[in-house]
Amino acid sequence: VRPKNKSYNIALHGGAGALRPHKYTSKQIQQYEGCLRTALSKGDEILSKGGSAIEAVIETVVIMEDSPLFNAGRGSVFSSDETIEMDASVSCGKRVQTGGVTNLTRVKNPVWGAFHVLENSKHALLSGLAADHYCREAGLEHESIQYFKTEHRLKQLKEAQEKNIVQLDHGDKVGTVGAVALDKTGNLASATSTGGMTNRYPGRVSDTSIQGAGTYAENELVAISGTGTGDFFIQNVLAFDMAAMMKYADIPMDEAAQRVLEKLEEAGGSGGLVAIDKYGNVTLPYNTHGMFRAWLNEDGEIQTGIFK
Ligand code: ASP
Fold first, then answer.
1. Torsion angle of C-alpha atoms 214, 218, 223, 228, degrees rounded to 10
2. For residue 281, how many C-alpha atoms fall within 13 Å in the half-sphere facing its CB?
3. 76-85 pLDDT, tens per residue?
4. How far is the CA of 235 from the centre of ligand 1 (A)?
5. What does the DSSP assignment read for 5-49?
């Protein structure tokens, strides 16, 4: 889909997983839809005023990081040792470069950390305490551990530990968050942020922070933000695989997206993605029961979706 009268576009996801209508009250659905809408309209507003794709995806993601509804920033899920570890990336299509942070524990908005790595460091990815430190030096807001921890997430961890599984954020609070955008000057960008997977080994790195795995952007081609079982995204280099199909084999974006999801499923993983091409076409496929998502329809109006 693409709005007819706009020379820019934006779409977002709030995570994919075992989302089923019976697990949610209508009030909860309203809350999710409200947040998705607020986040998308922020990005839309920035782009309409001529702001950059990078700014739009970051500000969109910040709104979802600040919401306890999603698995990013506040509301992140727990690692097996009951710590919170957050990963994020910002991908710039113009330079085909990503800035990433992984295993942050205190930074209020990991996506801003990723932006600083992209713009101001000589590196692609910073990790752990050093990354927390880097963000502090950059002047980014830090929060107490209590800010990130929610009772609900602790309960999810206990359940995952009883079953001895590492799980996607499948409960009634789902999702890694991400956004992709094309701005009026033709630049593409993506941003993704996650608390990872419940009960993962401490220090585990997600696809969210890794170029070509859960994130990718290249001008004149595509910007991608993935969500799902990240270890499989890393093993199969899924975001880059999709971009490569488009670049080298001229496969249309929708089809390339479907193919990587098939690959993900064959490998034993699950999830989804949002992507935007150089014309502003958007695709939002997933192979789970649902994916929190929002986009602009043909008339430029905001649409949200959760279930199939
Ligand atoms: N991709 C994220 C991870 O593996 C999880 C998610 O998308 O919900 O940590």
1. -10
2. 11
3. 988 898 889 9
4. 14
5. T-S-EEEEEEEEE---GGGS-HHHHHHHHHHHHHHHHHHHHHHHT
In this structure, the number of other CB atoms found within 10 A of the CB of residue 95 comes to 12
Is the distance from the beta carbon of residue 59 to the nearest atom of ligand 1 less than 6 Å?
no
Our separate counts of H helices and E strands in the chain read 9, 12
pLDDT of amino acid 146:
87
197 Cβ below 6 A of ligand 1: yes
Cα 87 from Cα 218, distance rounded (Å): 21
Kindly state the tokens that stand for 215.
Answer: 């994130």
Q: Ligand 1, atom 8: nearest CA belongs to which residue?
A: 176
Separation of 270 CA from ligand 1 center, angstroms?
Answer: 10
Q: Which residues are catalytic?
A: 176
For the chain, give the percent of residues with pLDDT over 70: 98
Q: Which residue has the tokens 């949610």?
A: 24
**Res 164: pLDDT:** 85
